[in-house]
Amino acid sequence: MHEGDHAGSAQQRVKALQITIISGLSGSGKSTAMRALEDMGFYCIDNMPATLIPTFIELCQHSTGELSRVAIAVDIRGKEFLEDFQKRVQDLRGKGHEVKILFLESTNEALIRRYSETRRSHPVAKERGIALPEAVKEERGEMAFLREIADEVIDTSDLNVHQLRDIVMERLMTVPAKRMKATLLSFGYSYGLPAEADIVMDVRLLPNPFFVRELRGLTGKDSTVRDYVLKQKETTEFLHRFSEMIEYLIPLYEKEGKSYLTIAIGCTGGKHRSVVIAEHLTAMLGKQGKEITVRHRDIERG
Hints:
The structure is a single chain. The chain is α/β, with parallel strands linked by helices. The chain has two domains: 13-172, P-loop containing nucleotide triphosphate hydrolases (Rossmann fold, 3-Layer(aba) Sandwich), CATH 3.40.50; 181-296, no CATH class. The protein is built from twelve helices and nine strands. The chain has helices spanning 3-13, 30-39, 53-61, 79-83, 85-94, 108-118, 123-128, 132-149, 161-172, 223-230, 233-255, 273-287, and strands at 18-24, 43-46, 69-73, 98-105, 152-155, 181-188, 199-202, 260-267, 291-296. A five-stranded parallel sheet has the order 2-3-1-4-5, with helices on both faces. Strands 7-8-6-9 form a four-stranded parallel sheet, with helices on one face. Helix 3 (53-61) links the parallel strand 2 and strand 3 (69-73). The longest helix is centred in the last third of the chain and has 23 residues, at 233-255. The radius of gyration is 23 Å and the shape is globular.
């Protein structure tokens, strides 16, 4: 065998990797996300020194096993990596690797509550000798650039560990080319807008079951509430027009390379109208072959 043949064989053994970079605010759930990725078969590394990442990726490329998916957790502690983050990601993509950036965040109130409850030290507060609220605010500002370039942003403020795990696994499952997944998310304006929403639709214009005494204590999953909302003339027209808009938009987002879309449907409390509309649209679009899931953020509140 000629020397060129040896070189060609060696080159063939070098493989492109699926690399997921998990980052976000301290206390937002990166450990839970990493455990979810481990369950999906990713080889996970937490807070690896930046200088070792290129060597680590090269070793993974030449591995003889099935090591093809890697997850690296990066946070405010990895300053060396963050300072040159975009260039390092571009270098990895330039070598043929599929790199996806997942950013986790929560409201300041949620982060402060979590650190107060666990009595753990916030890394910025510990390093700079400042109070917890100030540390949370400073970290958010310093990590804002990474949030802007992330492929996926997940707000974990109202998620438990099981819900976060499910969302991470759902969003990072392999999706066929140009096949986008979408989530219809019901919510209540009383509890704030969902940070992860790409599209927000306000359905407070529809008649409110809350003002019907026998429906007030039920939710949009109950048949009597569903029938009340769906029989309204305004609802019929709204569903027709809004479903047409979604059908129009999804192919355009797919064309731009977007792999995941969150459509938030909001009413006052997130228990009645938004739930009915989200459930109904999910069924409608599912029948058309769209990959649609539904989640209700505030249905258990109040």
